[in-house]
Amino acid sequence: MTLKKILLVEDDQDTVRAMGVRLKSRGYDLVVAPDAIAAIATARKEKPDVVVLDLGLPGGDGFTVMQRLKSNVDLMLVPIIVVSARDPLLNEERALKAGAEAFLQKPVENDELLTVIERALSKVAGPV
Amino acid sequence: MATILVVDDNDMNRSVLTTLLGYRGHRMLEASNGLEAIDRTIAERPDLIITDILMPNMDGYELVQKLQALDDEQQAQIIFYSATYLEGEARALARACGVCHVICKPAEPENILKIVDEALAKGRPTEVPAGPKGALHGEAIRILNDKLYRKVMEIEELNDALEKRVAGRTLDLEEANRALRNEILAREKAQADSLRNREEQLKMKGEFLSHVSHELRSPLGVVHQFTTILLDGLGGALNQDQREYLEIMLRNINQLKYMIDDLLEASRAEAGKLVVRRSSISMPDVVAHALESMTQASKEKGIGLKTDSRSELPAVYADPARVSQVLINLLDNAVKFSPPDSTITVRTEIFADDPSFVLVSVIDCGCGIEPADAERVFDRLYQVKDSRQASRQGLGLGLYICKEILGLHGGAIWIDRNCRAGATFHFTLPAFTTKNMIAPIVIQNDRLVSSLALLTVEVSPATPWRNERERERAVHKVHQILERCMLADLDVLYPVQNQAESDVFTIVARTDQRGGGVMVSRVRNQLSRCSELSEAGIVCAVDCEFLEFENLGLDGPPEDRIARIASCIDDRIKSKDHQRSATR
């Protein structure tokens, strides 16, 4: 069985490192994109199973990335989990409307992130 | 000794002469003007008359003429008593009208006495001196003219001085006026600026706080993540000390996280952006939930938590997450300040002062709160200063946030001042009652309405809900749509009733049969047009009925009548619930 691949779109290297350790320990394959443009390119190339997306990014914010992913036929079904330090009151509904599976506020409890990722994966894998 | 009459309009001048001559044993008479002098002369027949020259009404010159016109036996010696600068004129005048003596003021007493003695020595004049009348007039006119001229000059000089002073003062005043006007303009401008800037500053401050607290979150998140990575053994095995140190780190990281949350909440509260989503909630449930999340912290300190529910409680109309936030904040304080092996009690009861509220009390056995602090602990950033509690206590925002949250609910929070040991915090929340909710809409033109529409929307999924979030989103969506269809002041929306498989919205609307029909079709229309609901396979059943209150006996005080209408509505809602559960 191939490892499930997670695309982590995050510009903060320390956060990438921490999440990397955490996700790899759970047996996920991890690819990283540090900005909005790399996010689209990496998603096209790597075909991830889940995207974990920060909102504040260089080169265009997370909402732009989401819009681009959702309008790409190959990628539109890939679940997106938004992880941001921004105010959920102002961003959660917008993120969910744009097609995100969930909105988690930083700092994220590890269990919460892992649970949400697992749920998103099971949903996609479900009907197959 | 002689009788002497002193004529002078100046009291001081008269008294100088009467005193001086009185000492000499003369009988002194006084007159302050010409007429009086003539009267006294006729009555007293003085031997000598000493008169001033310039006097009002009748001057010395005229007086002398009048005196000389009297009978012979009334003639007296006359001395002119005049200012030194007029000496020349006085002597000329004296000569002209046959007066032999002149005293110039101010004069030495010896000089005065000498002249008086000389005059008296001459005795009464035997005949009236007949001076050249023309010369006399000429002299008098010249004296008066000179005098007038001097006075005019004096007045003109005074006038000039006065004009100069007025001009000077006018300049000063104009300068002051200009300065004042500038000052007023500057102040008006400053005031307008400050008004304009105030809103901007408040907004910027809010944005700044919001920005800072969000920026603080990211690095904190990284620290939090690596700490938990190490604790979970993902960085290798830990010995006992290492584990303990990391746990201390994690505890402090969490504390920092709560402070950042508080900072954000306080900035929201200040900007009036705290959001409250009210529904009908059971207070004991919320208390149990809050106590559960405090179990770990209280256990660590060996503190017991217990509840005390004193009576059958009505549901409260509040945001469960916000009420829980308030309770956890109060419990967290209580745990912080309580000694080990003590107990914290959360009591719920109907508020005795106003039974339409529920009273919640958090009672601890800690160090208590000084009366001086009792009011101020709810102020923003206020912290109790107490050397016994030198440890960190957060930002001092917690109780401020509690106060703001309860205020938004129409409740209040305060500290029990009668508390003998420990501290007791009380807060109130409004009970959820139909009466409280409908009271604003049932009175129309001072009369109670005779009918209302009762609209229900039952939201249920075609297949069972996949998760709680899906259900929440659907309910939230329906809530939004219903709010759009409602009229403020005329319709009230009940808190959603969460039932086993469905969620029921109830609206009481003040409308007639026709208006009710329009409202139902609008609600149906809006719900069916919402793709989010239809795509998720969510079914919304809309139902509407009219309640008539004509036969309720609408008399008695309005309070009672509203209560009767409310109980009628409650009955209908209950029976609808029964119908729904029966059909299932």
Mind explaining what this structure looks like?
Chain A contains five helices and five strands; from the N terminus they run E-H-E-H-E-H-E-H-E-H. With 128 residues, chain A is an alpha/beta fold. A five-stranded parallel sheet of chain A has the order 2-1-3-4-5, sandwiched between helices. In chain A, helix 4 (88-97) links the parallel strand 4 and strand 5. Mean pLDDT of chain B is 83; it is low at 387-392. Chain B has 584 residues and is of the alpha/beta class. Chain B is elongated. The longest helix of chain B is centred in the first third of the chain and has 99 residues, at 133-231. Helix content of chain B is 53%, strand content 17%. In chain B, helix 2 packs parallel to helix 3, helix 4 packs antiparallel against helix 6 (133-231) and helix 9 packs antiparallel against helix 11. Chain B is built from 16 helices and 19 strands. Chain A binds chain B through residues 12, 14-15, 18-19, 21-22, 25, 85-87, 89, 96, 102, 105-108, 110, 119, and chain B through 210, 214-215, 217-222, 224-226, 228-229, 232, 234-235, 257, 264, 268, 273, 275, 467, 469, 473.
List the helices and strands and how they pair.
The complex is a heterodimer of chains A (128) and B (584).
Chain A: E1 5-9, H1 13-25, E2 29-33, H2 36-46, E3 50-53, H3 62-70, E4 80-84, H4 88-97, E5 102-105, H5 110-125
Parallel strand pairs in A: 1-2, 1-3, 3-4, 4-5
Helix pairs in contact in A: 2-3
Chain B: E1 3-7, H1 11-23, E2 27-31, H2 34-44, E3 48-52, H3 60-68, E4 77-83, H4 87-96, E5 101-105, H5 109-121, H6 133-231, H7 240-270, E6 279-281, H8 283-301, E7 304-309, E8 316-318, H9 320-337, E9 343-350, E10 357-363, H10 371-374, H11 398-408, E11 413-415, E12 424-430, H12 434-438, E13 443-444, E14 447-448, E15 451-461, H13 468-485, E16 491-493, E17 497-498, E18 503-509, H14 513-529, H15 531-535, E19 538-548, H16 558-583
Parallel strand pairs in B: 1-2, 1-3, 3-4, 4-5, 7-9
Antiparallel strand pairs in B: 6-8, 9-10, 10-12, 11-12, 13-14, 15-18, 15-19, 16-18, 17-18
